Amino acid sequence: MVINKNEYTMKIVYYSKPWYADCDFPLIREYQNEGHDVYYFIDLVVLKTTLFDIKQQPKRYGILKASEFPELQKYSEYLDLNKVFILNHKLRDRYVLQHIWTYICFLFMIIKINPDVFHFTTVLRLRESVLYLLKKRMVLTVHDPFLHSGETTKKMKRYRNLAFRIINKYVILNECQKKQFSLAHHIPENNILVNRLGVYDNIRSANITKDKHTSFRVLFFGRISPYKGIDYLVKAIDIAHKENSNIECVIAGKGKFSFDISKYYDKEYFTILNRFIPDEELANLIYNSDVVVCPYIDATQSGVVQQAYGFEKPVIASNVGAMSEYIIDGVTGSIVPPKNFDMLAKEILRYSKSPQLLKNIKENIILATTDGFISWKQIAAKYLDFYKRI
Question: Which of the chain's ends, N or C, has fewer CB atoms near its CB within 10 Å?
Answer without folding.
Answer: N
